[in-house]
Design goal:
alpha/beta; Rossmann fold; seven-stranded parallel sheet; binds nicotinamide-adenine-dinucleotide; binds thymidine-5'-diphosphate
């Protein structure tokens, strides 16, 4: 890996991954360790969304060091950086669910804005004290979202990296603020940052509060499949392992201070997604009464301020860095549904009391 030259005291590449027990962070750590003989320090607060079961396959792997803690705890982060001497910080830690941000925005401000600020401060102090060539080789990669760009009309071109920021939810506003801080730390202090803005991920270990895993889990449980509004909102869908590959590529080859948009070239309306999930379940785990799971679809009250369409123009990362998604939506969604069918224990374990309370709160109000 050319850009990542810093090695730890054992001569191995060492990286710090925040939010490592969440959906994308865990997939990233698992994929990274499958491909590198380096060491990963995972830092995660273990909120409702963080789940150490996602990393259980690394339980006895000495290349994985997990620390429970908050990115906003600059003292802790500073200590970890000084102790482990990583060559990169990859920041996945965030409050990530739009509906939760509508019910309670404060945690989003704390983690996504204040937490990222403290993480940047700790990274800047550490980086400033590095000697060459470690200093030049250091990277701070911030993982963000296409939602910072706001909503597109049906015929508008997809989001490019220079699209204006127009966040509409407390979640996207807090991510937008964190992107601006990351940018400012590069321009003001020279911190070697990279920012990625990706579309909706899906795949293994996706917490079942988000559209695709919620539909799979509810369908199998015989529950309603709640489609917000008319179900014609459009998202671009990116298989999580393609996203992880894109982040590795940006880390290795990305130009400092640049933003890279990452998408799957899979624009789909929510209702089509739900029908696709139902059709796959009809094939792989048919209902005992012979009817289609799509009979469980229920239209419910829309999300307030619901963005109509997101779409990513991923040509920059493709042309500059040579990354392209490997999965089509058809191949990725089949793998995803199969994973949930094969991992029913994981599903029942994440459906704790706290999960049930959230589901009751979010859907009771939708009628
Ligand atoms: P997630 O909610 O599944 O995981 C977030 C993780 O961060 C959890 O493990 C949680 O415990 C941890 N965390 C929360 N607050 C923390 C704090 N203060 N300190 C340390 N850890 C904390 O989210 P995800 O889907 O894996 O998303 C990862 C990143 O990717 C986020 O920054 C999100 O904004 C971004 N993103 C996600 C998607 C998507 O479709 N999932 C799309 C675009 C961007
Ligand atoms: P979600 O997975 O929450 O991701 P995001 O809001 O970050 O795009 O939602 C994806 C889309 O699915 C979004 O348009 C809202 C919609 N949706 C439903 O229709 N029903 C649901 O129960 C959920 C959770 C989401």
């Amino acid at each position: 890996m050319s850009a990542l030259r810093n090695t730890d005291y054992r001569g191995k590449v060492m990286i710090l991954v925040t939010g490592s027990a969440g959906f994308i962070g865990a997939n990233f750590v698992l994929d990274w360790l499958a491909q590198h003989d380096g060491i990963v320090i995972g830092l995660d607060k273990l909120t409702y969304a963080g789940n150490l079961e996602n990393l259980v396959s690394l339980k006895d792997d000495p290349r994985h060091i997990f620390v429970r803690g908050d990115i906003g705890d600059a003292g802790l982060v500073g200590k970890l950086l000084a102790q482990y001497h990583p060559c990169a910080v990859i920041n996945f830690a965030a409050e990530s669910h739009v509906d939760r941000s509508i019910h309670g925005p404060e945690d989003f401000i704390q983690t996504n804005i204040v937490g990222t600020f403290h993480l940047l401060e700790a990274a800047r102090a550490y980086w400033s004290g590095l000697a060459e060539p470690e200093k030049t080789g250091f990277r701070f990669l911030h993982v963000s979202t296409d939602e910072v760009y706001g909503s597109l009309a049906k015929d508008e071109p997809a989001f490019g990296e220079t699209h204006r920021y127009e966040p509409n939810s407390p979640y996207s506003a807090s991510k937008a603020a964190s992107d601006h801080l990351v940018r400012a730390y590069h321009h003001t202090y020279g911190l070697p940052v990279l920012t990625t803005n990706c579309s909706n991920n899906y795949g293994p270990y996706h917490f079942p509060e988000k559209l695709i895993p919620l539909m799979i889990v509810n369908a199998l449980a015989g529950k309603p499949l709640p489609v917000y509004g008319d179900g014609q909102q459009i998202r671009d869908w990116l298989y999580v392992k393609d996203h992880c590959a894109a982040i590795r590529c940006v880390l290795e080859k990305g130009r400092l201070g640049e933003t890279y948009n990452i998408g799957g070239w899979n624009e789909k309306a929510n209702l089509d997604i739900v029908h696709t999930v139902c059709a796959l379940l009809d094939e792989l785990r048919p209902r005992s009464d012979g009817k289609s799971y799509s009979e469980q679809i229920t239209f419910v009250t829309d999300r307030p301020g619901h963005d109509r369409r997101y779409a990513i123009d991923a040509r920059k990362i493709e042309n500059e860095l040579g990354w392209k998604p490997a999965e089509t939506f058809e191949t990725g969604i089949r793998k995803t549904v199969r994973w949930y069918l094969d991992n029913q224990n994981w599903v029942s374990n994440v459906q704790s009391g706290a999960y049930r309370q959230w589901v009751e709160k979010n859907y009771a109000e939708r009628g």
